[in-house]
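Morning F.,

Quick status update on the modeling queue. The single chain you submitted on Monday has been processed. Sequence for confirmation:
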Amino acid sequence: MSGIPAGELPEGFLRAAAGEFEVDEIGTVAALQQSWAERPERTVIGAAIGERLFRLEHRTAQGALDVRVLHEVLLGRVLGISEEAVREERHLRYARASSRRSRRRARARRRSRFY
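Structure tokens below.
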């Protein structure tokens, strides 16, 4: 992600996300994967901000597509990124797979990622 005021990450983002999601800081991607396995009916999104990793579980979107919740709720309502900006990748770039190397590069640059 880029073009989002740095002062908003992570505290401002987490405050805004708490209106729509239950937010917990977790230690590893494995813990996030465990959440997906244990809660297949829930919409759970991971947010990595710098060195920290958070689990965001949508309060009401049971069985909803994760991509829809990510785009409409998290990017749209929480971060204020329009559908047009998402399509044009103005504030974010999509990576289809999250390799260890890309995670290290993102941490080094203090960027944010969503899983």
